[in-house]
Amino acid sequence: MDPLLIVLFIFLFLLSAFFSGTELALMSLASHKIEALVKEGKYGSKSLKKIKENNDRLLIAILIGNNLVNTFTAAFATSIAISMATNSGLGLSQATAIGISTGIVTFLLLLFGEIIPKSIATKNAARISLFVAPIYKTLMLILYPIISFMEVLIQVFSGKQKVEQMTDEEIESFIDMGRKSGSLEDHEHEKIKNILEFDETIVEEIMTPRVKIEALSSETTVKKAMEFYLSHTHSRIPVFTKTIDKIDYFLTARELVEEFSAGNLETKISDINLKEVLKVPLNQSIAILLETFQKSHKIMAIIIDEYGGVSGLITIEDIIEEVFGEIRDETDKEVDEIKELGDNSLRVKSDVLIEDLLEKFDLDLEHIGLDEREFGGETFSFVITHVLEGFPDTGEVINFDIKRSDKKEKQVLNCEVGEVKNAKIGNIDVKIMKKK
Q: Rounded distance, CA 256 to CA 253, Å?
């Protein structure tokens, strides 16, 4: 048997492993990873970026090489089998020898030409891709006529391929994977998610509701307005005429201070140079509103419902906080949403999330008989008004039976409502008590 045939046979096996392994490495490498390698100045990164610009051409080059190699491998295996059948003296027919060699070669190609190379490529995709990129760049130039012809055939039989765009869901899944793998911190993950949802968020979701708007009547004097300003420290104060549904202007702190300094204490603020307020509908996108703020040089808007009434108020700060979280300045007062009173008792704001409250008592929604699908993510005030089917009275007490397998004695979550004013629930005192 000619030793040269064996050497060529082994060389073809190595080439098969090369094409199979590099195919997986190159095809699995994401574009963002390639960009990172280019920025790092890694050897072969520019060639890698170049050949990956057209994955179809690269794949055709790999498949041409792999199929040619496998074809020659089978041919050499047949030649070796015939030589062995003729010279071995074992009395094997050529057909039997070819059959045996086909089985052996198929097994060897599967193991050493597919499984092992691809297993190695999976763990070292970037390193292998950088090393082989210059080789494939040259190979694609050599095979350019064949590759171009193949591309034409593919387009004829498969038609023009539509480039698939990454969906929002895929992007969100990608970001979630980044957090789980530790590539993204929790706060980074939250900010990116907020940015993705920015266009879909409407003003109704983040506005200050009507009942919380702090405004002045147009009949208010400068003196009273200054007292209001000093106690609230708003740089812009909405001004209504007769009713809160008629907010057309706002008063700036600068104009107010100028009038106060001039001694015009009894002047009505309606006689001051008030600024016209911006009005937007409930379903206005905050992304569009931000553009409006930038163009109009205004930072506050009044939200109008379908009947023309005032639904709420929104500022540019509200929009920024939607992405970056709450921003506090030196005038903002820190208010504890949940305050410990002692004796296992808490005083909570009505707009605290029900889960955050229950967590303080080592409870969850099921423990107090509430469905997580219905009440998960809701505020404490929502739960109370839903259970009572209306607003509670000041001082009203609501008890939730606590069901826990680790507690033998029967307990209730006792909730005493503080002041209820203008359809708004104040603080609520909460504690665990023995059931009477």
A: 5
Extract the tokens encoding 344. 């296992």
Q: d(Cα 136, Cα 29) in Å, to the nearest integer?
A: 15
pLDDT of 221 reads 94
Q: What is the pLDDT of residue 334?
A: 47
3-state secondary structure the chain: CCHHHHHHHHHHHHHHHHHHHHHHHHHHCCHHHHHHHHHHCCCCHHHHHHHHCCHHHHHHHHHHHHHHHHHHHHHHHHHHHHHHHHHCCCCCCHHHHHHHHHHHHHHHHHHHHHHHHHHHHHHCHHHHHHHHHHHHHHHHHHCHHHHHHHHHHHHHHHCCCCCCCCCHHHHHHHHHHHHHHCCCCHHHHHHHHHHHCCCCCEHHHHCEEHHHCCCEECCCEHHHHHHHHHHHCCCEEEEECCCCCCEEEEEEHHHHHHHHHCCCCCCEHHHCCCEECEEEECCCEHHHHHHHHHHHCCCEEEEECCCCCEEEEEEHHHHHHHHHCCCCCCCCCCCCCEEEEECCEEEECCCCEHHHHHHHCCCCHHHHCCCHHHHCCCEHHHHHHHHHCCCCCCCCEEEEEECCCCCCCCEEEEEEECCEECCEECCEEEEEEECC
d(CA 296, CA 277): 11
Q: What is the pLDDT of residues 343-352, one digit of tens each?
A: 778 898 888 8
All domains in the chain, ordered by first residue:
3-158 (no CATH), 203-324 (3.10.580.10), 338-434 (3.30.465.10)
pTM: predicted TM-score of the whole model, two decimal places? 0.48
- For residue 85, what are its two tokens? 């059948």
Task: Check if the beta carbon of residue 81 is closer than 8 Å to that of residue 5.
Answer: no
In this prediction, the residues of the chain whose per-residue pLDDT falls under 70 are 1-2, 84-92, 94, 159-168, 183, 186-187, 325-336, 421-423
User: pLDDT tens across 367-392, in order?
Assistant: 998 888 888 878 888 888 888 888 88
- Given a contact cutoff of 8 angstroms between Cβ atoms, the answer to whether 402 and 432 are in contact is yes
Asked whether the beta carbons of 297 and 316 are under 8 A apart, the reply is no
